[in-house]
Amino acid sequence: MYISDTTLEQLIEEDIPYIDFTSEILGINEQKGTIEYITREDTCICGVEEVIRILKKFDIEVIDSKKSGIFLKKGSTILKAKGEASALHMCWKVCVNILENSSGIATRTKKFVDIAKAQNPKIEIITTRKTFPGTKKLAMKAIIAGGAFPHRLGLSETVLVFEEHMRFIGGIDMFIKKIELYKQKAGEKKIIAEAHNIENAISLAKAGVDVIQLDKFSIADIKESIKKIRQISTDIKVGAAGGVNLKNVEAIAKTGVDLITTSALYFGKPSDIKADLQKIL
Question: Among 19, 191, 193, 242, which is least packed, fewest CB within 10 Å?
C-alpha cells in the first residue's frame, strides 16, 4: 500500500504546527530516551510502517518492530525506538493515533472475515468507499491487513449501476434493454448492478450482468435470490450489501453469497495501544 510522504507530513503538521511548547519549557529536548508501543488487548496491528517512516524523519532509531497484518496478544510490543526526548514527544501522539485507529479497523476486519469464512471459505469481504474523509489510504491499508479488500477505490475504477443511475436512463427495464451496449462500452470492465428486490435480481440475471448486489435483502430473500440466479447462470456473482455488520455477517455468509460489501469495518473503537516513554540513564 503506497502512502505518500505528503500524507504523513500532513498528519505530523496537524499535531505539530510549530514547536512542542511543553518540551521547550521543561528543557528536556536533548535528553535521550526510548518509546515503546505496546498492545493493551489482542490486536491485528496496522500502520507500523508509516510510524517507522515518521520516526525516521525525526532521527529516531527503530530498535524492534512487527509488521502490519500480524495478530498480537495483549501485552505484546509492536515497536520500540530510541532518540532525543524532543523528537520522541513530538512523534508520540501522531504515531499512536495511526497505530490505534489503523489497528482498530484491521482487528474488526479480521474478526469479520474470520466469521464469514468459517461459514463459507470462498466468500470475499469487500469494503465501500464510505470512509471518513481524509482517512482513506490508512483505512484501505487496514482493511487489507485484516483480510478484506476494497470494493471500489473510487468512481473511476468500476461500473456499479445503482437505482439512482437507472432513474436517469428510464429505469431498470431500459437498463436491461441496453445492457449489451453498456457491456461493449465498458470493455474489459464487469457490469455490477444493484437490486432492491427478488424480481429485480432475477431480471438482472436474465439480462446477463456480471455481478448482482443485493441491497438490504432479508436472509430469506438472499437465499431465494441466489437459488433463482444460480438456475439462470452459475457464472454470475452475487453479493450482499446494506446494513451488514458483525451481528449479522455469520447469517449472511451462510446463504452462499460470493461477496459481502460493508462500510461497518471503518467505524468503531480504536485498538488500545500504550506508548511507554522512558529516559535512558
Answer: 19
